[in-house]
Amino acid sequence: MENxxxxxxxxxxxxxxLALLALAGCMxxxxxxxxxxxxxxxxxxxxxxVDFTPTLEGDAAAYEWHFGDGETSTEPAPSHIYRQAGEFTxxxxxxxxxxxxxxxxxxxxxxxxxxxxxAAERGLLYWLDRKAGEISAGSPDGATSTTVVTGIxxxxxxxxxNGRIFxxxxxxVESANLDGTGRETLYYDGGMWxxxxxxxxxxxxxxxxxxxPVPYVSYDVPxxxxxADLDGSNAKVFARGPDWGCNSHxxxxxxxxxxxxxxxxxxxxxxxxxxxxxxxxxxPLVWTPKASIHWTPVDAFVDHEIIGGLPRTRAMALDVxxxxxxxxxxxxxxxxxxxxxxxxxxxTMLHVPVLVYVCLLADSPQALAxxxxxxxxxxxxxxxxxxxxxxxxxxxxxxxxxxRADSLALDL
Length: 412
Known about the structure:
Blueprint: H1 2-28, E1 34-40, E2 43-45, E3 48-57, E4 60-66, E5 72-73, E6 79-82, E7 86-96, E8 101-113, H2 116-121, E9 125-129, E10 134-138, E11 145-149, E12 158-161, E13 164-169, E14 172-177, E15 184-188, E16 196-201, E17 206-211, E18 224-229, E19 236-239, E20 249-257, E21 262-269, E22 291-297, E23 304-310, E24 316-318, E25 328-333, E26 338-343, H3 346-351, E27 356-360, E28 368-371, E29 376-381, E30 384-389, E31 392-401, E32 407-410
Parallel strand pairs: 2-8
Antiparallel strand pairs: 1-3, 3-6, 4-5, 4-7, 7-8, 9-10, 9-32, 10-11, 12-13, 13-14, 14-15, 16-17, 17-18, 18-19, 20-21, 21-22, 22-23, 24-25, 25-26, 26-27, 28-29, 29-30, 30-31
């Protein structure tokens, strides 16, 4: 009997031990939250803006980023400007709603080199005053400015490329050297209504512009995107979208990603009745749920819609200046006094259209320009031309007070 009791005690102890081991095993096998992150670009020259995107499974309550240069952020997906050269270790700590905290560290993730000379070689900021019929140029810090082109009739938009300024005006497309000399007409057609939305592909040495329908006359004629050599030769229609007719869509703003080989455009709904012109700066701004942003390869027209349901905008810009191509498309939302952006990757935006709030501005933002290399954003409103860091847009400065700028362009 005693042996039986002893055997029962041993068996019971073994069972309890096994149960405890099983419980411990269950506890050990409980899955931990998965945390990671991506950064782009991984290298560059000072000052270099880098975008950070977390990848995680679970419901996050808080984020804490350490960028390796002494700066931190609590934003979910921040952008950070590296102003010093070196290799930087980046860490992300995520606090989950269940109380669990997970940290991931990537050693020497970011490599930044000095670019003191590059900063000195950055070009000027250019703007078009439609009412005055003038194009002016100024230093990006607002220290100096001068008028370089005058006598422009009904100018709409400007672009910079290959050492020249390009702009659209009544019935024609013109260009000049950056100092205003060597002015010439690239394209003139008495039947072409005021072209708009100009963009330059410096790599392919091409210029693009939009020909909208003539108001009150030819609304049955679809909007067209034209393409020509930089001297105006070989001008031809690059695209006639199947829906760019009356009571439908039509491009109005253009931008080129030279490194990525893409042409972007903003497409807007406009009514036949009433003769509304695309991007008319005089008409009331209204919500247009069919407005959208698209892109196509520059070698052949293939329409890729990126994001729709946008408001009427006056300006669109890409974060040009990086060798690997653009990462974001920016546009103004004058009705709500702000600038928005979304990633330029088609698959991301097509399936998960996330608008990233950039900053709250005043007095209806009009023109817009982005310098990704220096991490700067420029925009104009009724007060003049402003500048802010892309990583901290709340810190704004008015660099050209009282200046009217209906279109902006950077010499990058």
